[in-house]
Amino acid sequence: MIGTVTRIRRYPVKSMLGEDLPAGTVGSGGLAGDRAFAVLDGSGAVGSAKHPRKWGPLLACRASQGGDSRVDVVLPDGSAHVAGAAELDQRLSELLGRPARMSDQPPRQARLERAVPDYDGGAPQSALADSVLDATGTRVTSVGIAAGSFLDFGALHAVTTSTLQTLRGRAPGPDFDPRRFRPNLVIDTGSVEGFPEDEWPGRRIRIGETVLEAIVPTPRCVVPTLAHGELPADPTLMRAVAREHRIPVLTLGSLTCVGVYLKVLTAGPVRVGDPVTMQ
């Protein structure tokens, strides 16, 4: 056994605050209900707080999914709305300062814009070469996302308590609350030191009946530095990670990483408290 599931997180709307679950169902596309909706505007880009000047206000909104699969969104003023309602689209447009709408249908060739971080290891050199300065004055790259979904890359994202504790020990200033990294699974790896999930890519992970395969360490963007509900902005956080943990990722060079992306081999339930084993 390599650990225990200590937290399950779902984000019904991409780049909004999510919810803790005692249990969930994992299918081929990831955790049921995760990133079921996204906010779109007229630019053709999928709303992502990876471009904070355009989409950062989404992180002040909280989304949750009821038993009837209805997604409710609470805006910064405390008002609650149902995803897909015209009233919510109007309120989101006001929040963002431009026309926007909620959708559960990923556009063809969906893409998102990613602000180029101001720390080393925040983006591959190839992406930096293709970056442009946009109308907000932000240097951005444009990247595709998983076909037919609003996921960035892997179906699931996991982070271990060992990684977070190691970062706290090496950089005691920043706040390494796991919610900043937006994982689906937080895995308690006990007294293991270092960054154990770095060694997982290519290995199979079993959680009960569910079988996953680790794909690649998770390169990080600026999102962990932003305010997440009651968690204040922490601009020092990713500079600390860049200083302490840059590792090779595929052919992209040495990148700042926290966590690991996973794909689903066998669907099944996951529950808080489930043992996690490696095959």
UniProtKB/TrEMBL annotation:
Identify the SUPFAM superfamilies for this entry: PK beta-barrel domain-like
Residue ranges of every copy of the MOSC domain listed in the record:
130-279
List the Pfam families hit by this protein, alphabetically.
MOSC, MOSC_N
MF terms from GO for this chain are: catalytic activity; molybdenum ion binding; pyridoxal phosphate binding
Specify the superkingdom. Answer: Bacteria
Name it. Molybdenum cofactor biosysynthesis protein
Q: Which organism is it from?
A: Actinocatenispora sera
